[in-house]
Amino acid sequence: METYNSHLDFLMDTLGINGRELAAAIHVDPSLVSKWRNNHRLLSHRSVHLLRIAEYLAAYDSSPSLREILGAYGVEVNGENGEELLAWLCRWLTDQTPFPVNTSGPLAGYSRYSRDASYKVYLGNDGRRDAVLQFLDHILTLPQGQQLYLMSQEDLAWLIEDKAFLAVWQDKLTQLLQQEHKIKIIHWVDRSVDSLNSIIGHWLPLHLTGGIESWFFPKYSDSPFQTTLFILENDLVITGMSSPKLKDHRYTALFNDPITVKQFQWVFSTYLNDCRPLIEVCSKRDMQRLLEKTTSAINGKDTAYLIWEPPLFMTMSQGLLTSILARNDLEDHLIKECQGYHQQVAITEGSQMSRLLYNFDSLQKTLQGVQDLLCEELTAIIGQPIHVSREDMVQYVHELVEGMQTNEGLEIAFFSAPGKAPVNLFLRADMVLAWCKELPCTAAVAEPTVVKAFFRYYDELWQSIPRVNRDRTWVSNELLRLITY
After folding, report:
1. Strands annotated E in 60-130
2. Mean of the pLDDT values across residues 231-256?
3. At a CB cut-off of 8 Å and minimum separation 6, what does 108 contact?
4. Given this model, what pLDDT does residue 2 score?
5. Angle 332-338-342 (CA atoms, 0-180°, nearest 5)?
6. Residue 28 sits in a domain of what CATH number?
7. Within a domain: residue 109?
8. CATH code of residue 142
9. How would you classify the pairing of strands 354-359 and 212-216?
10. Kind of pairing, strands 2-4 and 354-359?
11. Cis status of the peptide bond prior to 64, with omega within 30 of 0
């Protein structure tokens, strides 16, 4: 027994009508047809489009015809009386209950999709990139609110080997998310850490927009075939498959007929049923909830920080934190809550290993030019603007210098990367927390392979910094020099 989302969905599928065809015939956006079809928007009897839809369906030439479909389901309507047929269709299409169909029943003898369907096939990694760009460009022409489904078990050479394409890919995905399209993505984390590491910097900022729902397939096993699916709901699908024995023969197909698209949506949903959430994303106002999960998941004590926009409340003393909070006229219960989070995540004295990687340009600008700085993390946690003075920052720097002198496990390094809008990282043994000043959301991930990939990504950044910029004496002197201006 097959169940359709709506009566319109059933008739479009049975007659072989795709969303773009119906939308063009009645002069509406395809996204509106998709919403009617999936019961995301009710097709009301008061709709100005209802009669035009009924007229189009009644006149559509297909096998089986509309009259044959109605007769097969015992509908007592005079098919020769056009007005009666249209009136019945209008009533029937506005019935919002899902429509069950017995696939072994009256229509079993009919070919439910007999029209010729066209598709394109692309060869190699260059072909895959061409197909993907065509897919993304098509979506960018559509109204906002489209739903995309992405998954790939294949190696990601096609994505990461061409740096120019990778930049275009990320730019187009950013545009999609800015247009409020939504993405559900299934990640295959059973890859080498190096492979995951190579795309962390590209995927993470996209997740922080809040437009991506991210899952991972938890069954780690070798498969003779790897599949890729890029789906625009009820519209378009890219599919590819490869095998280790055929690694030099990658083919990609792009389909736009509704039956094929629906089949691959079913494939995706079948995979999704076995998946688990990978990256938990929430608004910055809910950052404290992720901090609570971070602290409850910790088994080890080593921490690492990638800091683009200072200060970071996790790296300041509780005394300085309390002073900042009091100066911002907070109520006592809010101060106590924030102090509680701080006790769980802050650097403490002793043998704990902590590595702070600071963007030098941002730190210098903060210390030399800003008198009143908005603290992003505290603002997100408290839910109201929290400002830090230059005097607070001077004390903060003195604490960092003193920390390196008294704590052998504390290391600080400087890097320089002006003009970017990057992601801050807070890494612990079992959890990674990420956020960005320019983006609205915070993200956390706890899947072990991905956490390890984040640490590898961070370590490569650390090791790429000249040794002098990691030397304890040089770093201390530079910090003190910045606050003497």
Report:
1. 99-101, 119-123
2. 82
3. none
4. 58
5. 140
6. 1.10.260
7. no
8. 3.30.870.10
9. unpaired
10. unpaired
11. yes
Which two tokens mark 41? 């928007």
**How far is Cα 233 from Cα 40, in angstroms, rounded to an integer?**
13
pLDDT tens across 381-401, in order? 787 888 888 888 889 999 999
For residues 58-63, average pLDDT: 71
Residue at 282: amino acid letter:
C
Q: 9 CB contacts (<8 Å, ≥6 apart)?
A: 37, 38, 39, 99
| Sheet of 410-415, strand order | 279-283, 441-445, 431-435, 424-428, 303-307, 354-359, 410-415
Better-scored residue on pLDDT, 469 or 62: 469
Residues 42 and 161 in one domain: no
Cβ atoms within 10 Å, residue 468:
11
Pick 301 or 284 by higher pLDDT: 284
Residue 268 has pLDDT above 90, yes or no: yes
Over 90: is that where the pLDDT of 148 sits? Answer: yes
Q: Are residues 14 and 138 in the same domain?
A: no
Residues 135 and 39 in one domain: no
**Given a cut of 70, is residue 435 above it in pLDDT?**
yes
Tell me the two tokens of residue 362.
């941002």
Distance CA 217, CA 188 (A): 6
Tokens of 431: 């959890």
Tell me, yes or no, whether 111 lies in a domain.
no
Tokens 């389909």, residue located: 255
Residues 165 and 259 in one domain: yes
Helix, strand, coil % (nearest 5) of the chain?
45, 20, 35
Range of 376's domain? 282-482
Same domain (yes/no): 180, 319: no
